[in-house]
C-alpha cells in the first residue's frame, strides 16, 4: 500500500475515482494511456520529486475503482504532480467551476496532441483578432456541415488568452 495508508474505504464511482480515471484516460503521451503499474512505478522511483511516496499498482487500482477513496495527502500530492493538475482537483477542494476549468485544460492539452490541431492553432498566432474571428466562423460552418456541436465540449464560451 501507499505510504500513509488509507483512512477509509469508499464506494465505486467516488469523486476521487472518477477524477483519477479521467486523468488516466486523458493525460498521457500520444499512443496509449498510462497503466496503474507505470504510474505507481514512476511515483515510487522519483522519491524526491514525489515526496518519497511509495505507491503500488494494486493500491492505485483500488483508488481508481473506488475501493479506497481517502488516501493520504502525500499520495494525492504525488498523483497531482504526476498528472500536472492542482492537488485540490484530486482532494475535491476546488469549486465545481474550478474543477471544470482543470478538465477544460486537460481537454485542451489532449487536443493539442493532434499535430493538425496544433498546426491550425499555431498558424493563427499573430493574425489580427478579426482574422482569427473569421477563422472561427469558418470552422463553425464546417462543424455544422458535419453535424458536430457548434462548439467542442471544452469551449465553454470563454476566450483564451
Q: How would you describe the overall organization of this protein?
A:
- This protein is 57% helix and 0% strand.
- With 161 residues, the chain is an all-alpha fold.
- Helix 2 (36-45) packs across helix 3.
- The protein is elongated and about 50 Å long.
Elements, N to C (H/E) = HHHHHHHH
Q: Structural class of the secondary elements?
A: mainly alpha
Shape: elongated
Mean pLDDT: 82
Q: Give the N-to-C terminal Cα separation.
A: 42 Å
Compute the gyration radius: what is it? 19 Å
Short description:
This protein is mostly helical and 161 residues long.
Write the SSE topology.
Layout: H1 15-26, H2 36-45, H3 57-65, H4 73-83, H5 87-91, H6 96-112, H7 115-124, H8 129-145
Structural features:
single chain, 8 helices, 161 residues, elongated, 57% helix, mainly alpha, disordered N terminus, disordered C terminus
Amino acid at each position: 500500500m501507499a505510504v500513509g495508508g488509507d483512512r477509509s474505504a469508499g464506494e465505486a464511482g467516488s469523486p476521487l475515482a472518477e477524477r483519477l480515471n479521467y486523468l488516466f484516460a486523458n493525460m498521457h503521451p500520444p499512443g496509449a494511456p498510462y497503466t496503474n503499474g507505470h504510474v505507481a512505478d514512476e511515483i515510487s522511483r522519483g522519491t524526491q520529486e514525489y515526496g518519497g511516496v511509495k505507491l503500488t499498482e494494486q493500491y492505485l487500482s483500488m483508488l481508481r475503482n473506488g475501493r479506497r477513496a481517502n488516501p493520504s495527502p502525500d499520495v494525492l500530492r504525488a498523483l497531482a504532480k504526476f498528472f500536472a493538475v492542482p492537488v485540490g482537483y484530486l482532494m475535491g477542494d476546488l469549486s465545481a467551476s474550478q474543477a471544470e476549468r482543470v478538465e477544460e485544460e486537460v481537454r485542451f492539452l489532449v487536443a493539442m496532441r493532434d499535430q493538425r490541431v496544433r498546426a491550425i492553432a499555431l498558424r493563427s498566432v499573430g493574425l489580427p483578432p478579426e482574422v482569427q474571428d473569421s477563422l472561427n466562423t469558418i470552422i463553425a460552418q464546417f462543424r455544422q456541415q458535419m453535424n458536430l456541436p457548434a462548439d467542442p465540449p471544452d469551449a465553454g464560451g470563454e476566450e483564451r488568452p
